[in-house]
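FAQ: What does the model actually see?

It sees only this:
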Amino acid sequence: MATPTSATTAMPSRTFSSSDEDAIPGEDTSEVTKLFQERLQAYKHAVGYLETYIEATEKVNHAHGKEYDKVLKTVKDPLKEGHHFDQSLGGVAGMFENIRSNTQGISNQHFETAKQLKGAILPLFERLHTEIKHKSKELEKGAGKGSKQVDKARAVTQKHIELLGSRAATFDSHGGKMIATDDPYILQRGVKYRLNKQIQEENNNRQDLISVQNSFAQFEAHILQQIQHGMGQFMQVVNTQAEQTKAMYGDMVGTTQRIPLDFEWNGFIQRNSGVLIDPSAPARSVANVRFPNQDHRATTPLIAGSLERKGKIMRSYDTNYYVVTPSKFIHEFKTDDDYAKEPVPELSLYLPDCTVGAVAGQKFNIKGKDVSKGKVGNTFSMNHELAFKAHTPQAAQQWWDIIKQAAGGATAELPDSSAPTSPIIGKSSPPHPTITTQGMTGAGPKSATPVSAAPASGVPTSGVEGEVGKY
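And it is asked to produce this:
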């Protein structure tokens, strides 16, 4: 009996491209599952045909047994004028006795054949039929359920992408005025979060389908082995009927036995190469996916990086990730990771409603209201003066320049500074911070007007080499 060949020796050609991909693929996630269901249905019908064939053969043999009983009656009575024949063996009487014995044996053989077909051969195919049904239910509860999860995740992603498109259009038409939760930057990160969950569901379902696909080769080999075994037993039962019957049934079984265990599987792979999944193809990655408005100008921050903000209670500085968006918000996040959890701002200031103080060294203040809690939260929110500190004076100046352009107003108030006064600069020092050619700054008295370390422009320039607009 042939040994089944691994299913990965000749895999289908359909792959997932490593280039830009659609966020919501147009493929039917249940297509592979339906194909395997149809294949199981085909094998179930094939086994059903064999069951019907065995049942019909059993009925014919039972009927033949009854017919040979009628034949036996024709020679059952003693011969007329039998006394004219020698009753010892080898004579005419012995010949008829032999005829009666063999005829009875033929009748009994047909009944025995019918009994063996019904009690030993038919159950083999019935059990195989049941196995195929169980395999079909297993496929429906396993891979079929995974396909439904993928469809559900895709629907959630599509809904958020449409929301991003709507808010991006609002940004273009209304000059960027919107609430914090509708900021296209936030929505774009929300799309990535849901897209990541969707792709996890897709890859899990894909792995389930690959496991099913690989197991089908072994299951088909098992089906063919059982068919071959059952047909072999069938041949042994009917082989005693006659040489001619033996030749006919032997030819059928021989044909069955000559089927390689992987013959049907390899043909199946070739016919459906455009549907089945290639296990060697790479899994999907968020980095390779493109979705509408992903690179919309409203989603690209004017500046982004880490700043320190003084706490209200402990009065110590904590480092967080901040961005200033084209929608004129400054958002605070714990991290810039879009995938660990949904990127919801811890703090959001709408800069046109805020006032920015002067910059002093690494520090500057912003006075405004936190609008990150939606309409209800914004109603009870109060104005606060928030103290920020950058990593370098150059970085602070760049943040201040960009924030000042979007802020509703600016004051000459300098933030509180705990830094010691430079011994080089005395009371007669000029009231403005100085920038040396080596990039060092001297701290002078509080000034009414801050000096910019970088020209104001719509595109931020970074104080860190190689990272434009990022700290």
